[in-house]
UniProtKB/TrEMBL annotation:
<dbReference type="GO" id="GO:0005783">
    <property type="term" value="C:endoplasmic reticulum"/>
</dbReference>
<comment type="similarity">
    <text>Belongs to the CAF1 family.</text>
</comment>
<dbReference type="GO" id="GO:0003723">
    <property type="term" value="F:RNA binding"/>
</dbReference>
<dbReference type="GO" id="GO:0000175">
    <property type="term" value="F:3'-5'-RNA exonuclease activity"/>
</dbReference>
<dbReference type="Pfam" id="PF04857">
    <property type="entry name" value="CAF1"/>
</dbReference>
<dbReference type="InterPro" id="IPR012337">
    <property type="entry name" value="RNaseH-like_sf"/>
</dbReference>
<dbReference type="InterPro" id="IPR036397">
    <property type="entry name" value="RNaseH_sf"/>
</dbReference>
<dbReference type="GO" id="GO:1990432">
    <property type="term" value="P:siRNA 3'-end processing"/>
</dbReference>
<dbReference type="InterPro" id="IPR006941">
    <property type="entry name" value="RNase_CAF1"/>
</dbReference>
<dbReference type="GO" id="GO:0005634">
    <property type="term" value="C:nucleus"/>
</dbReference>
<dbReference type="GO" id="GO:1990431">
    <property type="term" value="P:priRNA 3'-end processing"/>
</dbReference>
<protein>
    <submittedName>
        <fullName>PNDC1 ribonuclease</fullName>
    </submittedName>
</protein>
<dbReference type="GO" id="GO:0000289">
    <property type="term" value="P:nuclear-transcribed mRNA poly(A) tail shortening"/>
</dbReference>
<dbReference type="InterPro" id="IPR051181">
    <property type="entry name" value="CAF1_poly(A)_ribonucleases"/>
</dbReference>
C-alpha cells in the first residue's frame, strides 16, 4: 500500500491502531545515497572499529536523505498465523519553516533505485514531510513569534501558489464581504500551504478546507477575521500547522511509544537515519547514539545477524541478500513443514507482494524482513528441543530462542561481527593481516597498492610506515604470498605485531639506546675506579 502526503493524515489513526495491536514491526529504507565520496577517508574499511565506522556513517547520513520508508506490521492471529499490513511511505523533508533543508544525491544510488522502478515523482511531489526535535523546536518558536514562512521550495509547486494568488486577487477586487470562491485541485499539503500564503498576503480574506482537494476563500472584514483566527475551529491554527509540518514524525513517535520489537536487515544505516531525521541530529558520541536507540527501541532484531547465526548452526546455503534468505527459507527442507510452521498472510491491500517480487521496494523488503525473522525463529525453536513444539507458539517464545541475537546489529566488513545496542561491543578481531615491504619504488600510495592486489583478492590497505603497508581481507589467498615471493619491488609476509608494529620497533630502539648508555656508564665507571 503506497502512502503519500495526500493520504497520510487520514490513514494515521488506523496505522496507530494496527501498530498497537502488532506482535512486531519490520522496516526498510531507501536513501538518496549511502557513503559520501566527497568526504576524505570515508569509505568503510576492515580496519574500522565500531566507533570509527559510526563517525564515517554519521557524516554520510548528514549528507543524504530518505526517499522511501517501508513498514510491515505483523499481527498475530490464531493457529500461528500472522497477518501483514505492508506500507510504502514516500518521504520529503518538511519545507514549512525558516531554514530550508539541503541534501545530496548519489548518481549510483539514484540509478540503482530507477532500475528497480522507483517513482521519483511521488518522492518529490507527494512526499510526506518530517522533522526532528531540533527542527520542530525552531518552527515552534517562529510560530509563537509569528515569524514563520513557507520555504520557496515548498511541496506546493510555485505555479500552484502563483495561480491561486492571481485568482484570489483578481476576484477580491470586485467581491463583497461574505462573498466566497473555491480553489480546486489542491493535493495534500498544498491545501495548507495555499491557505497560509493567502492569509499572509491578504488581510481581508479567510480560508477553510472544503473536502479533500478544495479550499473555500471568503472576503471578510478585519474584525471578523480576528474573531475567526481566535476560533478553535481554525484549520490553520499553530498546533495544526505544527502537526502537518511534522508529518511522518507523528508515526515515528507512535512507534517509539508502542515499544514493539523493531526488525530490519543490515539495519545500522536505517537506525542512524531514524535517529537523525525523526528524533535528534546524530550525536558525535558513538556510545550516546547506542543509548538513544536502545531507549527508543528496546528490542531490535537484525535478520542479517539472525541468518548468519542459522548458517553457522545448521547446514544452510550461503546467501548474499534478503530475498535469497527468504527464498531459501521458503523452499528449504531445513524449515519444518506442516501446521506448526507460521502462516504469513498478506492483508488484502498488500496482496501484490504474494504474486510478484519487488526487490528494493521498501514495503516489500520490510515484508521480507519480518517473514525471514518468523521462519528463522521457528526453525531455531524446533531445533532447540527434542520435544514436540506446541501447535501455536507465541511470539515471546520466538524472542526467547533469538535471545543471543536481540539488539545485535550486523557490522559490515569490520573488526566486530555486530554492534550490541544493549551492552558493550565484543573486542575487535581483525582477520590475519599481510604486510607489504616496498623496495625501489618511491612514492607508492595506498591507492596504488590497492589496485596492485585487487585482481587477486579484495584487500583494504593502510600505510604502516614510509615503505610498509598493511593489507586486510576477510580471507586472503596463499597464492598472494607465493606470487610475490620473488617480486622485484614488493615483498609480502604475514604481519607480526612484535616484528612490524612501528610502536614496538620504536620501543625496542629506545630500550636499545637506554641499554647501550647503561652499558657505557657501567664500563666508564668501572674504568675510573680502577
Amino acid at each position: 500500500m503506497e502512502v503519500g502526503a495526500e493520504s497520510f493524515a487520514w490513514r494515521l489513526p488506523r496505522l496507530r491502531r494496527r501498530i498497537l495491536r502488532a506482535a512486531f514491526v519490520a522496516l526498510d529504507m531507501e536513501f538518496t545515497g549511502l557513503h559520501s565520496t566527497s568526504l576524505q577517508n570515508n569509505e568503510p574499511s576492515l580496519f574500522d572499529s565500531p566507533a570509527e565506522r559510526y563517525e564515517k556513517a554519521r557524516r554520510s547520513v548528514q549528507h543524504f536523505t530518505l526517499v522511501q520508508l517501508g513498514l510491515a506490521i505483523f499481527s498475530k492471529g490464531n493457529s500461528n498465523k500472522y497477518v501483514v499490513h505492508s506500507y510504502n511511505f514516500f518521504l520529503f523533508p518538511s519545507t514549512l519553516g525558516i531554514r530550508d533543508v539541503e541534501f545530496t544525491l548519489s548518481a549510483s544510488s539514484i540509478q540503482f533505485l530507477s532500475h528497480y522502478g522507483f517513482d521519483y515523482n511521488k518522492f518529490l511531489k507527494d512526499g510526506i514531510p518530517y522533522m526532528n526535535e531540533v527542527q520542530e523546536k525552531i518552527l515552534r518558536q517562529h510560530l509563537l513569534a509569528g515569524t514563520w514562512e513557507v520555504c520557496s521550495t515548498s511541496n506546493a509547486d510555485r505555479d500552484v501558489l502563483k495561480k491561486a494568488i492571481q485568482e484570489v486577487t483578481s476576484w477580491i477586487a470586485a467581491a463583497k464581504e461574505e462573498d466566497s470562491m473555491i480553489l480546486q485541485d489542491l493535493n495534500g499539503y498544498q491545501m495548507l500551504d495555499v491557505q497560509l500564503v493567502l492569509r499572509q498576503a491578504l488581510e481581508n480574506v479567510w480560508t477553510e478546507p472544503l473536502g479533500d482537494k478544495k479550499v473555500i476563500v471568503k472576503k471578510v472584514s478585519p474584525e471578523h477575521r480576528q474573531l475567526l483566527e481566535n476560533s478553535s475551529y481554525d484549520h490553520c491554527k499553530k498546533k495544526l500547522i505544527l502537526l502537518s509540518a511534522r508529518g511522518f514524525t507523528n508515526l515515528f513517535q507512535i512507534l517509539v511509544k508502542a515499544k514493539k520489537p523493531l526488525v530490519g536487515h543490515n539495519m545500522l544505516m536505517d537506525l542512524m537515519h531514524l535517529h537523525d531525521k525523526f528524533y535528534r541530529p546524530l550525536p558525535e558520541s558513538y556510545e550516546e547514539f547506542k543509548r538513544n536507540i536502545h531507549n527508543l527501541f528496546p528490542v531490535i532484531i537484525d535478520t542479517k545477524t539472525v541468518t548468519k547465526y542459522v548458517q553457522k548452526k545448521y547446514l544452510f546455503p550461503r546467501i548474499s541478500s534478503l530475498l535469497e534468505a527468504y527464498t531459501v527459507l521458503c523452499s528449504s527442507n531445513l524449515n519444518p513443514k506442516g501446521p506448526l510452521c507460521p502462516v504469513i498472510a498478506l492483508a488484502s491491500g498488500c496482496s501484490r507482494y504474494a504474486e510478484k517480487k519487488f526487490p528494493h521496494e521498501a514495503g516489500y523488503d520490510a515484508f521480507l524482513c519480518g517473514s525471514v525473522l518468523l521462519m528463522s525463529a521457528h526453525l531455531l525453536l524446533c531445533r532447540s528441543t527434542d520435544d514436540a513444539v506446541e501447535a501455536d507458539p507465541s511470539f515471546s517464545q520466538y524472542l526467547t530462542v533469538l535471545a543471543e541475537q536481540v539488539n545485535k546489529v550486523n557490522f559490515i566488513r569490520g573488526g566486530v561481527a555486530s554492534i550490541n545496542f544493549s551492552g558493550e561491543d565484543a573486542p575487535c578481531r581483525h582477520p590475519p593481516a599481510l604486510v607489504v615491504h616496498v623496495r625501489g619504488w618511491p612514492g607508492l600510495t595506498e591507492r596504488q597498492i590497492y589496485h596492485e592486489f585487487k585482481a587477486r583478492c579484495r584487500f583494504d590497505v593502510r600505510r604502516l610506515s614510509k615503505n610498509q603497508f598493511i593489507l586486510l581481507s576477510n580471507k586472503y589467498k596463499q597464492l598472494v604470498l607465493r606470487d610475490y615471493r620473488h617480486h622485484p619491488h614488493l615483498q609480502v609476509s604475514v604481519y607480526r605485531h612484535w616484528r612490524h608494529s612501528p610502536s614496538v620497533n620504536c620501543l625496542l630502539q629506545i630500550s636499545g639506546i637506554v641499554a647501550l648508555w647503561s652499558l657505557l656508564a657501567f664500563v666508564l665507571g668501572g674504568a675510573r675506579s680502577c
